[in-house]
Amino acid sequence: MHSNPMVVTWPDYGELYDWLRQEVDGLSDAQLDFDSQAPEQEWMWWSIRRQVSHIAWVTLVFPHRRCHMFLWPDGNIPSPINWTDHHIKTMKFDRRLDESLYWDIPTLLDKVKVGMDWLTEVVTTVPAVTLRTTESVHRGTPFWRHVIQVLPRGAWVDAQDPNLIHYTLEASLWMVYWEILAHIYTIQRLKRAQELPLRVTLPMVGYLTLPEYRGETPDAAPGFVPLR
């Protein structure tokens, strides 16, 4: 997101997909499932495979929840996944796709591609003024309170209830991009831990400007427990 609101820029979700695809290409099951559940290594709790599953979850659930009025104005919403099983209050797995159905990497990448295409459609067809004036209010988390600092505009704490956060859709679309970028960076960290070569050089922007997401501090990023 450009700091000057007169300059309209949008994330390149297709490029994100290419970076992800390159980083996981050719990895064995053992490499994809390498993780650590040690309390002090929270960044390793999700393996590469589960990082990809989370990315797929984000790219599908976010546009379904926040962009459906632009993508499917006739209400004919497609179902590449069972939506009921994947929304926050009813999901079977923690912010990941159903692992009994979506486990192998080609299947997960197919789901990522669907979501990336939806996101691309939004930023290439909906006018910028519409995305900047479409607002929503959500119960905040320590994570969201922390990461909105990277936005030059479009997110703010409610004046009456500090546990609520307002977002414009423009800001949220950039936050989705930065979140996926941070997870691809974590995939690279998991590859480094296995002494595997990296395929791409990622831009250090968005969440990656914060030390917690680059692994430069022993402190984990703030959590997702809702503020009350």
TrEMBL record:
Source taxon at top rank: Bacteria
Designated name of the protein: DinB-like domain-containing protein
InterPro entries per the UniProt record, alphabetical: DinB/YfiT-like (IPR034660)
